[in-house]
Amino acid sequence: MSGKLRLLATAAFGLEGVAASELKRLGFEAKGFHGGARFEGSYEDAFLANLWLRSADRVLIELGRFKAESFEALFEGVKALPLEDYLPRDAFLHLTASCARSQLMAPSSVQSIAKKAAVSRLQGVYQISWLPETGPRYRLDVHIHEDEAVVALDTSGSGLSRRGYRTFNAVAPLRESLAAAMVMTSPWRPWLPFFDPMCGSGTLPIEAALIALDRAPGLLRPFAMEEWAGGEQKAYQSLREEAAERFEAQKAERQAGPEPLRVAGSDIDAQVLNMALSHLRQAGLTGLVRFEKRELKDAQDLFGEGRGIVVTNPPYGERMGDEAQAEAIYQELRMLRNRLPGWGLSAISSHKGFERVFGLRADKKRRVYNGRIECEIFNYFPPRAPKAEPDAED
Ligand SMILES: C[S@@+](CC[C@H](N)C(=O)[O-])C[C@H]1O[C@@H](n2cnc3c(N)ncnc32)[C@H](O)[C@@H]1O
């Protein structure tokens, strides 16, 4: 396959722009669309995106798009794609499908027709009467939206949110990609203290530490494309090695340099804190993030005065009867902010009256989905640091 691939970094609703910004920082020309961000590049570039994207769900190679108002059109459209440019004769073919606002609205039928068409194409090109499917796995995704089918090849394997460190599920954990997006869109910067006073299983502090230490989110996990045959394996390996070196260098600098990493989490529940500590160890960050058992009302002792940012995912009060409890927590959170006057705050909630209960309008908001729950991220900027007084002689 020569030439540039058309690549898609899929992302949850509300995070498309965050994924596009990340791609731009990686050096790509990227544009957000409903469902993700588009960019172009080689297989190596797709690997780089898998390794480094924090807010995206998957990296896909777009193989083609066409009108699919009937099953015949779908079959012919898939069969016309140059699948052999991407899939070897022994490819183990796995199809997934989704449909929205279209004539074809049954994903299972779309999946089976598309698979028949793909098999038919490969049998014809490779001159074989059956596909052995004994080789590496290739997942083809067919998405039909307003009668336009987009067929794309998944390079990631499991979703990019699965960094590999999180194995225990606390109540209502935040997906790693959403946690990272929250950290990246908050007023926090890696040299500032970071604090989550309701950290549960530790996702937000761990994602903040990964960002501060320049640790590629995908460093510890494999990607589907690594199993595919091809000459790129060496290039993938060197991208991994380079990422590991960047992490080690940054870690050494933060441990020995003038700006040590100050990332912490606390929670009222000792059991979830044990999970947070296990996740920290599994992320290879033992000793780099502080986790302590604290009630929200006593949490400010962890940092005291100075500047920093609180980033947190408090309970939403979604279930009947829990709303009053959630509101009491938002008021307590406001008191925490009052006790930390130099600090900014970023909180996510689905509670429609969050700002009213918290008692302050957010400086910036972003609508996102936490799983199926529509939420907003409320950002409160820290007060500006006073400018240094000019010297008397100036
Ligand atoms: C939605 S969960 C946070 C999940 C976390 N982001 C994660 O990824 O695992 C809310 C957390 O707030 C904690 N919490 C509730 N009330 C609290 C209080 N008064 N003080 C401290 N923590 C509290 C709960 O124990 C729970 O772990």
Question: If you had to describe this structure to a student in words, what would you say it looks like?
Answer:
With 394 residues, this protein is of the alpha/beta class. It folds into two domains: 5-154, 2-Layer Sandwich (VC0802-like); 176-217 and 260-380, Rossmann fold (3-Layer(aba) Sandwich). The protein is built from ten helices and 14 strands. It has helices at 16-25, 43-52, 71-79, 107-126, 176-185, 203-212, 233-256, 270-282, 323-339, 354-358, and strands at 5-10, 31-33, 36-41, 58-67, 92-100, 137-145, 148-154, 194-196, 263-267, 290-293, 308-312, 343-349, 364-370, 373-380. The strands form two sheets. The chain has a seven-stranded mixed beta sheet with strand order 2-3-1-4-7-6-5. The chain has a seven-stranded mixed beta sheet with strand order 10-9-8-11-12-14-13, with helices on one face. Helix 4 links the parallel strand 5 (92-100) and strand 6. Helix 2 runs parallel beside helix 7, helix 3 runs parallel beside helix 4 (107-126) and helix 5 crosses helix 6. The radius of gyration is 24 Å and the shape is globular. The N and C termini lie far apart (64 Å). The relative contact order is 0.11. It binds S-adenosylmethionine.
